[in-house]
Design brief:
It is a single chain. The radius of gyration is 20 Å and the shape is globular. The longest helix has 14 residues, at 299-312. The two termini are 26 Å apart. By secondary structure, it is an alpha/beta fold. The protein is built from ten helices and 17 strands. Strands 3, 4, 5, 8, 9, 16 and 17 form a seven-stranded mixed β-sheet that branches. It has a six-stranded parallel β-sheet with strand order 12-11-10-13-14-15, covered by helices on one side. It has a two-stranded antiparallel sheet with strand order 1-2.
């Protein structure tokens, strides 16, 4: 039987979030039913609520940084049992047949992965609804285990912010001896500092804002470079194997290219859209450097991340809020007034 579930939804791009009852699908044999304990607040949630990217549809229940407790499992489920703490991230299905899916890179599914919200189930075409809600149903293949002892609220942002940084760090084989720079100290950037440091890299933060040194060093930065200071930028010319750019708005990436070593790579993970000003190919050609993009990570990568964080005691720095305060949190997020991620205590839905 379908479940009647309470959540918070936007009814249009101009509406604030408000209580909304909707139906979850009938559980299938491979499904896990999860009671949601915490849900992280991603900048993408705000973009989707406001239809900034042009593909939202309503009513829209956001939330793709989901931590919860298994309450029941389908007859074919083998990996989970009731009571297990689990996570669900940005996607809940894919074609499972294309080359990327077979490689465990479902985020690049050639048929298009099914988003946790604002998407349609590939089997029954019902709309998907996210984690700003009481419960969720998903295939066990798109559910990950949360290691014992990992703080549940702090683990929630690992399902998006964390994996967005982990995937390029692993793909470009960051480890001991690597020199990595992170551009921007926000929800993504602070996770990048923690993870790169734990992998053994020498880590630098690029920032436009003076005064972030103490926090950056606490999070794992060995060096802080003010990107608006030409002398500081010149001093790190040719230093980095990898620069991960987390800035979520249009900006000039050209100043970062000279900081790459021969064969170095600048990876864009924060901004979606056209670059302004145009990208200069001169440093690329003269140093065989690359500009690349990356988005979240596959399910196997996500489980690897959670296991790594469990081993190293890594969680996101979070501020826990009630669901009733979500619109105020969105306004603060626009002002970067959070260190460094909001997480909703979903028990507040009962208030």
């Amino acid at each position: 039987m379908t479940m009647n579930v309470l959540g918070y939804a936007a009814q249009s791009a101009k509406d604030t979030l408000a209580p909304f009852r909707f139906e979850r699908r009938d559980p299938r044999p491979d499904d896990v039913m999860v009671e949601i304990v915490n849900c992280g607040v991603c900048h993408s949630d705000l973009h989707m609520v406001r239809d900034d990217w042009g593909w939202s549809f309503y009513p829209l229940v956001p939330g793709h940084e989901i931590i919860g407790r298994v309450i029941s499992t389908g007859t074919d489920v083998t990996r989970f049992k009731p009571g297990d703490h689990v996570g669900i991230g940005c996607m809940v299905d894919s074609c499972r047949q294309c080359d990327p899916c077979k490689q465990g890179l479902e985020q690049y599914c050639e048929a298009g992965h099914t988003l946790t919200y604002a998407s349609h189930d590939r089997h029954d075409q019902r709309p998907t609804y996210g984690g700003y809600s009481e419960k969720i149903v998903a295939s066990e293949k798109f559910v990950v285990k949360v290691p014992d002892g990992l703080d549940l609220a702090g683990a929630a942002p690992l399902l998006c912010a964390g994996i967005t940084m982990w995937s390029p760090l692993r793909h470009w084989q960051v480890g001991k001896g690597s020199k990595v720079a992170i551009t921007g100290l926000g929800g993504l950037g602070h996770m990048g500092l923690k993870l790169a440091r734990a992998l053994g890299a020498e880590v630098t933060l690029f920032t436009r804002s003076p005064g972030k040194e103490q926090d950056a060093r606490r999070l794992g930065a060995d060096h802080i470079v003010l990107s608006t200071d030409e002398a500081q930028m010149a001093a790190v010319k040719g230093r980095f194997d990898l620069v991960i750019d987390t800035v979520p708005y249009v900006h000039d990436v050209n100043p970062y290219l000279p900081t790459l070593k021969l064969n170095g790579t600048l990876v864009l993970v924060g901004y979606v859209g056209g670059l302004e000003p145009f990208l200069s190919t001169i440093p690329l050609i003269l140093g065989r450097k690359s500009v690349a993009g990356s988005v979240i990570g596959g399910i196997a990568e996500t489980q690897e991340l959670l296991d790594f964080c469990g081993q190293h005691g890594i969680i996101s720095d979070v501020e826990v809020i009630k669901i009733q305060d979500i619109d105020a949190a969105y306004q603060r997020m626009l002002k970067s007034d959070v260190k460094y991620r909001f997480v909703i205590d979903m028990s507040s839905l009962k208030s």
